[in-house]
Amino acid sequence: AKGLPMSKVYYKHTLRNAINPMITIFGYELSGILSGAALVEIVTNWPGMGRLILEAVLSQDFYLVMASLLIGGILLVTGNLIADILIAFADPRVRLR
Asked: What is this structure's pTM?
């Protein structure tokens, strides 16, 4: 309607508004990588963190289970922190003053 090229319309209007939810999902998916790795390790019988956590749960090794939950929590908080920082760079409306 304004006579703008489509690339400018895509960048200025579409991409800027669509990037915030994608960055937020990325923050949550960082902790989900561990569970996805666990599924692949169990199905393919590879040794790794997922198999170790499963064996710890089955053998009731509480310290290893607590450590794995701590690692998952740290990944979740780190992913959300990275997502918040990326959103602050991507969208100037979200920045603190």
From this structure: 0.73
